[in-house]
Amino acid sequence: MQHGPAVRRRKLGAELRALRTSAGLTSGEAARLVGWHQSKVSRIETGASGVKPADVRLLLDAYAVADAQLRELLLVLAGSDEGGGRHHWWHAYRGVLPPTYRDFISLESQASAMSTLETSVVPGLLQTPAYARAVTRAAVGGLDDERLDALVEVRLARQDVLRSDPPLKLSAVLDEAVLRREIGGPDVMKQQLERLLEAARLPQVRLQVLPFAAGAHVGVTGPFVIFSFSSTSDLDVVVLDHLTSSLYLERKEDLRAYTEAFNALQIHALSPEDSLDYIAGIGDGA
């Protein structure tokens, strides 16, 4: 398990190595094309050292990589501030966002799909402003109003990924506790449940409820997120949130285990149609 930046360096290096190999170049030949020592190419490919976006661009040009989406993704992994649309907006909040949160947002903004198990709170991408404020105030103690406002703005701005072109495909399994835990008071929860019903009807959102009646399940160990990327599955990653940090799992066996776990949770959960009825019932006081 690694923190976000180390994982991103290794994933970026592995992808650059694969692109070099596809271009039919040795590391020495690649180094000569861009005017570097071979050792620099090797350090980048193993993730032993960071790499500037400008250097990534040089390598991509040398490897004749024309896929615009892949180029942008790799540049973002290198820390590029470039890009349009929904990308890089969070840099305006650098002063209030911890690095691990920025890493999470950057992955979320570039991913093509996101699978998440939530056991305590509504996923951030589906929260109402009032719910987001109540959750943030409870999770981060000692916030002044200005910082709280900024963090809520970030939470709401993240939701643009569901409205982009193409939108992020979100698959969420919610433990019933998420729906029963009263956060922010009855009115806030009523609005939040209504928001979930609206979101569940979007074609890019698949929402399922795991009722208490399902008993023990593989997700009892805690929530997790799986980010998937359409350009290359080698960049897929599992994120586990902790109180003060996030951990990233990148090994293929870890990805396989969490993917299988999520598939099992979907099987044990209510169908999307039955989940809508279940959420509506809770909203009506059932």
Automatic annotation (TrEMBL):
It comes from Streptomyces longisporus. Residues 16-70 form the HTH cro/C1-type domain. The lineage of its organism: Bacteria, Bacillati, Actinomycetota, Actinomycetes, Kitasatosporales. It comes from the Bacteria. Transmembrane segments: none annotated. This is Helix-turn-helix transcriptional regulator. InterPro entries: Cro/C1-type_HTH, DUF5753, Lambda_DNA-bd_dom_sf.
